[in-house]
Amino acid sequence: MDLKSFLKENNGFPANRKVRISPCFVDKGEEVLWEIRAVSEEEYRRVADGKKDKWAALCMISVVEPDLKDKELWESYGVDSGEKVLKEMLYPGEYVKLLEAVKDINGFQKRRKAWKEQAKN
């Protein structure tokens, strides 16, 4: 085994993804895609520490576009955080769609599939 495989510059974090979340947001007649990214465990813990809704925190830091930290966006929806703006922007089904995409890029879905396979055997 080569330790170099584990060095940060060799970390194979997934590339950012563009995902369809809601047809409600359009630009020039086209649905605007959302961009999401994978985050490190440390980054997630820093943001989620002390929060009731850890999934909302994960969504907030995983979404690249739209910028959920933008105060103008918050003001538009009458909220004071990225987690709250997500819940105001999206219908429940759209929020679940975003959450599933965020879980997938951050490795949760693969883990669940592996657990199901182990339970079958």
Task: Report what the structure shows.
- 49% of the residues lie in helices and 11% in strands.
- It has six helices and five strands; from the N terminus they run E-E-E-E-H-H-E-H-H-H-H.
- The protein has a three-stranded antiparallel sheet. A two-stranded antiparallel sheet has the order 2-3.
- Strand 2 and strand 3 (30-31) form a beta hairpin.
- The chain starts with 16 loop residues before the first strand and ends with a helix.
Concise description?
This protein has helices at 41-48, 54-62, 71-77, 82-89, 92-105, 108-120; strands at residues 17-19, 26-27, 30-31, 34-36, 63-65. The protein has 121 residues and is mainly alpha-helical. The longest helix is centred in the C-terminal third of the chain and has 14 residues, at 92-105.
Compile the SSE list and pairings.
Layout: E1 17-19, E2 26-27, E3 30-31, E4 34-36, H1 41-48, H2 54-62, E5 63-65, H3 71-77, H4 82-89, H5 92-105, H6 108-120
Antiparallel strand pairs: 1-4, 2-3, 4-5
Key attributes of the depicted protein:
single chain; 121 residues; mainly alpha; 3-stranded antiparallel β-sheet; 6 helices; 5 strands
Instruction: Give unreliable regions as ranges.
Output: none
Residue-averaged pLDDT? 90
Radius of gyration: 17 Å
> SSE order in H/E notation?
EEEEHHEHHHH
- What count of helical segments does DSSP give? 6
Residue share in β-strands: 5-15%
Report strand order across the widest sheet: 1-4-5
The tally of beta strands, per DSSP, is: 5
Net shape: globular
Q: How far is it from the N-terminal to the C-terminal residue, by CA? A: 30 Å
Tell me roughly what share of residues is in helical segments: 40-55%
Largest sheet: 3 strands, antiparallel
